[in-house]
Specification:
Elements: E1 3-9, E2 20-21, E3 24-27, E4 31-32, E5 60-64, H1 65-73, E6 87-90, E7 102-105, E8 109-116, H2 122-126, E9 135-137, E10 144-146, E11 150-156, E12 158-160, E13 165-169
Parallel strand pairs: 5-6
Antiparallel strand pairs: 1-2, 1-6, 1-13, 3-4, 3-12, 5-11, 7-8, 7-13, 8-11, 9-10
């Protein structure tokens, strides 16, 4: 069963949260039209100061809506766009995707997953104590699990709306696990 777009968000200015929209337009090789993080080179406010010429592997931020359900059980009220994501999904195991997975959104748009979002301390500014809830420790490996979504680049542009379907196309084998970008 395909996943679904739960919400879409963008912001023209640097701000932790992004307002929900009726639709967003994805631009090939750039990101979300009108979003502050769109561009060929890195647009992350902090990283631009010391790595301004790196390719932008964080053009589009996706978070699974199921994370909000998990956080609500721990007393945190969080909704679409509030953690800065552009696309909120439902029914897609974003964190289980391999690097290079393609996400077909609606009729046209295609994203390529580049890695995990590296949660920052601004999450605690948004809700005190929330940063500790978007990490987990893998009991087998002892490694951190980052639960705050994935980052992607736009391979084919198009308009994306809430309720659009999401189809996952895995990359060729061997699969590489997601790393922070």
């Amino acid at each position: 069963m395909p996943g679904q777009v739960a919400a879409v968000s963008r912001n023209e200015v640097y701000s932790f949260s992004k307002p929900n929209r009726d639709s967003i337009t994805l631009l090939t090789g750039l990101g979300v039209e009108g979003d502050v993080h769109a561009g060929e080179t890195i647009r992350h406010q902090f990283r631009m100061t010391y790595e301004p010429d790196l390719p932008n592997l964080r053009q589009v931020h996706l978070i699974h809506e199921e994370l909000f359900d998990e956080l609500a059980l721990k007393g945190f009220s969080v909704s679409a766009g509030q953690l800065g994501e552009n696309i909120t999904t439902r029914g897609v195991d974003l964190l289980g995707l391999p690097t290079g997975a393609l996400l077909h959104l609606g009729e046209q748009a295609v994203l390529e997953v580049t890695g995990l979002r590296n949660p920052c301390s601004k999450i605690n500014d948004f809700r005190k104590g929330l940063l500790g809830e978007v990490f987990a420790m893998d009991p087998l490996s002892g490694e951190f699990i980052f639960k705050c979504g994935v980052m992607a680049v736009v391979r084919r542009g198009g308009t994306v709306r809430p309720d659009d379907s999401i189809r996952v196309e895995p990359p060729p084998l061997p699969h590489r696990p997601l790393e922070r970008v």
